[in-house]
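Q: I have 184 residues here and want to know how they pack in 3D. Can you give me a structure?
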Amino acid sequence: MTKREARAQARTLRAALDMQAVGRGMAEVLFPLPCWAAAGTVLAFAAMPDEPDTAAILRQALADGKHLLLPRVLSKTAMDWVEIPDLALLRPGAFGILEPPADLPTADPAVFARPLALIPCLAAGRDGVRLGRGGGYYDRFLAHYKGAKLLLCPEAVLTDTLPCDDWDAHFAPEEILTEKGIQV
């Protein structure tokens, strides 16, 4: 199977999912985890309609007093991270994704205490391969990121194997979070 075929298959499977319910389920299993409690900073994303709804996670991060960093697309190949103190500041950006406005400064995730990155995907392999949308934004970020991370993957698009290239980010099984919990 090619990546193009895998993406098409993942999109078909995702179209049948209630992403608000998937997102709520992920939040319920995330909040009791030690990595959530230990995180002083959460790197997350504002979900698109075909992604697990992250609104509860974003709200809880702020309510817990954690630093919340969200990505902002700069170009077809680059994104930066921005600390967002209030979700009301988010505006539609590149690709229609809610992101921090241009007037907020870039933040370096490496300078924040105890970061936890919550990473989106189209699908994931049980072997830890992440299938993204093809832009490489998160692969480039993860190549240098050293903190804790979880891949947010709906159970329905978690497969045995996926095609991958050398540059694709990999996750350990205990770093894959579905609405049913950690996949170990």
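Q: Anything worth noting?
A: Residues 3-182 form a domain with the Rossmann fold fold (CATH 3.40.50.10420). The mean pLDDT is 92.
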